[in-house]
Amino acid sequence: MSSILYATSIADLAPLTVAIPFGLAALLASRLPFPFTRHYAELVAAAGALVVAVLCLLLLSKTLDSDGPVVARIGGWQPRDDGVIVGINFAFDSLGAALALLAAVLVGAALVFAWRFFEAVGPTFHALILVFLGALTGFALTGDLFNMFVFFELMSVSAYALTAYRIERAASLQGALTFAVTNSVGAVMILFGIALLYGRTGALNLAQVGEALASRPSDGLVVTAFALITGGFLVKAAIVPFHFWLADAYAVAPTPAAIVFTGVMSDLGIYAVARIYLTVFQAPLEPHVEGLRAVLVGFAVVTALLGAALALAQNHLKRLLAFVTISQIGLALIGVGLLTPDGVAGATLLIPADGLLRAGLFVCIGAILHRCGSVYQSSLHGRGRVLPKVFPVFFGAAVLGLAALPPLGAYPGKALVEEAAGEVGYGWVAIVFVVATAVAAAALLRAGGRVFFGWGAPHETDTDPREPPAEESELTGSRGRVPGVMFASAAVLIVAGLLVAAVPGTAEDAQRSAHAFADREAYAAPVLGRPPPPAEPVHLLHGGALEVVLGLLTALGSIALAVALLRDLVPLPRPVLMGFERLRRQHSGQIGDYVAWATVGFALLGGLCALAT
Amino acid sequence: MDEQPPRRPGELSFAARRRLFLVGAAGLGALLLWGLFELPDYRDVVPLYGQVINHSAVEERSSTAVVSAVNFDYRGFDTLGEEFILFAAVLVLALLLRRLSEERRDRHEWKARHEHTTSAAVRLTCAALVGPTVLLAVYITAHGHLTPGGGFQGGVIAATALLLVYLGSDYPTMQRLRPLPLVETAKAAGALAFVLLGLAGLIFAGAFLENFLPLGTPGDLVAAGTIPLLSVAVGLEVAGGFVLLLSEFLDQLLVIRRKQEADS
Amino acid sequence: MSVLPYVVAVWICLVGLYGIVTSRHLLHTIICVSVVQSSTYVLLLAVGYRQGGVAPVFVDIPHTTPAVDPVVQALTLTDVVVGGAVTALLLAIAVQIEKHLHTLDPDELDPLRD
Q1: Is this prediction's pTM over 0.90?
Q2: Does C75 reside within a domain?
Q3: Residues of A in contact with B35 (CB under 8 A)
Q4: Do B198 and A4 touch (CB under 8 A)?
């Protein structure tokens, strides 16, 4: 028996990262008067996010100190002598803890952004975003398959709710509807996969299921379960052809919610794919890893390129950023899809950097919306000049970080993934990285140039001829100035994004963690109560000159492309433009289309996995 | 088939969409069946997890209804997440169905349109059923650890009791019986209670949601440690949540009218 | 017929998906989402079933009696609650969409239209 005062381990406090936001949300939603009036709701929520962030930081440092995952046995259930785990446990390593920390930081930033200005009706927004935070951390830290599903659904429902928040606008409702229907279909597929695994192994704990599957070669059930679970999480991660919902949802979600969505929610889908493959499926599917690698990298490459190309065609700034998000998640999936520890390490460095920078860009767009009343490039031409001069600087710095300018931002992750790919014969993905990153960054730079400086021809509406409606600002307060909280949140997010992967030592830590992450037996041992296997030495990769050159090429290329686009120097032949337009039109906003594509996607993923094994 | 709205150029036609889906569905169906056919005969085997819990739950948890033991103890953390899914959905529901600025509540109009439409037989039956329904809800919630039931089921039954009140009388009566602030507080209190019980487990027993109360003997009403308490917390939350849900939808349907409509 | 429940689950899932894809009314779409979710209930309960097993309630019977799986029942219960919450949310969104756009045809939705 031990009480909290003599907590045997900080690990036992891990469930508090879920319980604290939930409890505070319940308090906010109760109709108690003082101190939970609306103004205090902001304080309470911010305090909650801060506490969770500190806790996650402690958990992260704990994971960096231990070999193998940190295990928190919820309900006090210890593994039985026969190896059966009857309770739920958290079992996380530094990647999970880092994502939980990222979630807490982003929710904190969102709350700062919304401080006293967001048109919140009662405490609903703050309660919802706290529940969202609890779901994100629970998802990142848990070691149980069905628990992962429950937090996935909670994360999704809170996201639907946050997306639909501004009910006065029909677009918000429609975006939330398509979001909800498509993600629910994805969740059903995950549950099918879980049922298959449970039927075969009789377990729900990740380590235990992995252990049980390791003793038999793979068969139809294992492959199907893999395809279904991976596919379901790829819906959340918005990989082609499951991606259609993301642009609609991000375009209409309130900016504080969008900050968290783009920063961490979709990336958690990629994390789940990595975690589940490496812990559960690695043993039986290892003989077929070459084929599966090809399948995953294939989907990822298509996503990265499609997202970047479509970003060029967007007039609406939030949709532009949404497609950039899609493209970058595709790049992260390349890292994970390599199915090697180094690939996962590269993705580990990419995800927070890209996420924080994109979140910062969303804040900039929020500032533009507040000050100028629109998010359409065509009606914003040059009007961004009224914003304080520091905003173009923020914007440019963030985009250059996304463009992997060495050594900042996305560069360390990109370099590591390129090297990791080279190790398994996939060196050509470097070209995909360069092209996708440069094109996406160019789209952003072009938008920035148009809005902040009035460059390029005015009234150009790209390929979307529809008249943009006037959009109300999401914030109260005078239109005449940009609230200080926007400066603060943008600055913190962008600086953090530029530096998070560039801090010396992070790359080595990420690689060591990824090797531990990828070692199924090392993960399973503490969970199942066994002594850990001997640690294998890790060969660390260091970025070489080639990667630096590629990084510079990407950054400079994006600038050059942006300039060329602004000056109309890029003559695209008519068939290409027509094809582009057809592709853009597929994103019709209609549920039937999206679900049809998703069904095809699942069939394709499953069929290709079946062929590969 | 009625007229379909014209498709914008470049979008999939309906026939194309259906064809696309059918191809995908054929593939997906084949994939699912391929995997499912590898499962053992569904009549033969109970998975290991279930067997282990069946054998040990009564002794370990003094709970004769094993499903509730799984729900509130072994896998109580799942229940926490699930409870908050309902919580979040109902929270935003209040927002989604609230009165827009161009609408207003019109109780008088409701009265004029809907009064005197329930028959005496309906009113009598509903009035007679409300009491037993509430009792049933309390019974099911309290006995969750003994017989099938628990907080979720009991909470839904309690919400049904309110619906019976509405069916048997009229909207204003139902409104009197469910003061919204109280219901919202109950819902939040139930959710908070679950979290606090988990914290108490951390403080008094060393792990979040660990049982810290005496277990008692299986079959007693006061037994099974924290399971009945968690069941009541969930019951409160679910009852509050569903009452709110039904109220919001009924409000939206019956009372909220556009300003122009009501004035005309 | 050892695979009957599995076939039923797959059929329900596909029928529900077909309904979503070809739907002309938002309420129909939402109910079809519910149908798709219910296919997982069938699957889960089938996985846990045992012929001749009793319900896992050991009030009058010794707890060593062969019983069906309680874990999948708990999972299904969770799933039902989740499904109910999502359905409620979708219905509320549909109510408001009807007010804004005066239509419930999912194919008249437009992501950029206000």
Answers
A1: yes
A2: yes
A3: 196, 220-221, 223-225, 228
A4: no
